[in-house]
Design brief:
With about 160 residues, this protein is mainly alpha-helical. Among the domains are: about 35-75; about 95-140. The protein has helices at about 25-30, 35-50, 55-60, 65-75, 95-105, 110-125, 130-140; strands spanning about 1-5, 5-10, 15-20. Strands 1-2-3 form a 3-stranded antiparallel sheet, with no helix packed on it. A hairpin with a 3-residue loop joins strand 1 (about 1-5) and strand 2 (about 5-10). The two termini are about 35 Å apart. The mean pLDDT is about 80.
């Protein structure tokens, strides 16, 4: 796919290129956003003022499930403020960074699976080897266990 400011071209499997106007929006501009606090408060005021949920949703052009979710949120928290969007930063392994570093210092040739197993037995943290690898990669602690070797002659064609 090629893009410029407001046009994008997608080439399909048959080789045909199709160009469309993206409206100048970046990916972040197309991401979903929560409804404004103003709208949330006006919908809740209408419902609390005696309007039925269905009438309020028709009046403000929102979904019935959305208004119901806002009502439950208001009852539970006293507010209709949207929760923070996105995945929280960090990893479950961040608090165990010193423990993982000590494992590597003790046994320099320890495997990712062995680190995951030690985390489970010693720290009661269950993770897969990919999580351990990502944790080490973010800290630039990855290493090869042995030096690169010349390819074997039997493997050549």
């Amino acid at each position: 796919m090629q893009t410029d400011q407001s046009r994008a071209t997608i080439t399909l499997a048959d080789g045909a290129g199709h160009t469309f106007d993206s409206g100048g929006f970046d990916r972040e501009d197309r991401m979903g956003r929560p409804y404004s606090m103003d709208l949330r408060e006006r919908v809740m005021a209408a419902i609390e003022g005696g309007m039925s949920t269905r009438q309020a949703t028709a009046r403000f052009s929102i979904g019935i499930a959305t208004a119901g979710a806002w009502s439950r949120l208001k009852r539970a928290t006293g507010s209709v403020a949207p929760p923070k969007q996105g995945k929280p930063k960090g990893s479950v392994l961040d608090v165990h960074a010193d423990f993982i570093a000590s494992l590597i210092d003790e046994t320099p040739d320890i495997t990712l699976d062995e680190i995951a197993a030690r985390l489970k037995t010693d720290r009661a943290v269950t993770v897969v080897r990919t999580a351990v690898w990502k944790h080490l990669d973010r800290r630039e602690m990855t290493h090869k266990k042995r030096a690169p070797m010349r390819a074997s002659s039997s493997a050549r064609m």
